[in-house]
Amino acid sequence: MRHESIRDLTKLLFLDIETVPQAYRWEGLDERSAALFSEKTRYEQERQGKDAAQLWQDKGGILAEFGRIVCIGVGSLHKDTDGLHLRVTSYHGDDEYDLLTRFTDLLERHYATEEHWLCAHNGKEFDFPWIARRCVVNRVKLPRLLDIAGLKPWEVGHVDTMQLWSFGDRKAYTSLALLAHILGIPTPKDDISGADVARVYYEDRDLERIAAYCRKDVAATAQLFLRLTGRELLPADRIAFV
C-alpha cells in the first residue's frame, strides 16, 4: 500500500490502544494461565535469564492472550473553510466487551467501505491485531477493516506510520516519541508513559489519566502521518480533544 492511495484524508481513522495484564501481579493468575504464559515465553526466559514471574511484569500487558484493552483512542480529520481539523476522542472503561462493541460499531457505521483506512504507529504489529484478537475473545463481530483473513496485502486498509518511516528497513523499532522529537512534532509533556499504564490502572485506579495519555498519542500519530506524507502539521487550535 502506498500512502498516495489515500486521496481523501477524512477517510482515515487514527487510533492508539492502551492495554494492561489480566492480573496485575503474577500471583493473581490462575494456575492454568500461569502455566501457559510460562510455556509461551520459554525462549524469552532463556534468552533473558528470567523466570516467567519476572517476565510477567514486562510482557503480561503486551500479549493479547494474557492482557486486555482498557482504552482505544481515535482521531479523524475534517475539512473546514480554513483547512483540516483533527477531532480526537476515546473509548475506555473496565468492561472490555463494552468498549470493543462501541469501537466496532463506529467502524461499521462510518468506516465500512474500501475507501476507509486505519492508521496507527506500529499498528500492524500491535494495535490492529490486538483489537482483532480481543474481539474474538469477547465474541465481538469483526468489522470489515479488521477482518483481513485471506486478503492480499494491497487490499488491507491499514497504514502504519512506523513502516512509513522505515523505508523498507524492518530491523528496528522507532518509537512515536522519538519520531515526534526529531521531526518537530509538538507533543505535551506527560507524567506517564506506556510503561506506567498498568500501575496507573491497577494502583491509582485512574483510567481518565490513561485515556488522556492515549488521546495525545492519537494526535501525535495523525501529525506524524501528515509530516511523513509531505503535508503541513496542524496548529494546536485545529486539534480538539473531546
Describe this structure in words.
The chain has 242 residues and is an alpha/beta fold. It folds into two domains: 3-19 and 69-241, Ribonuclease H-like superfamily/Ribonuclease H (Nucleotidyltransferase, domain 5), CATH 3.30.420.10; 23-59, no CATH class. It is 38% helix and 18% strand. It is built from nine helices and six strands; from the N terminus they run βαααββαβαβααααβ. The protein has helices at residues 31-40, 42-48, 52-59, 96-110, 127-137, 161-166, 176-182, 197-202, 207-228; strands spanning 12-21, 67-80, 83-92, 117-120, 158-160, 239-241. The chain has a six-stranded mixed sheet with strand order 5-4-1-2-3-6, with helices on both faces. A hairpin with a 2-residue loop joins β2 (67-80) and β3. The longest helix has 22 residues, at 207-228. The radius of gyration is 18 Å and the shape is globular.
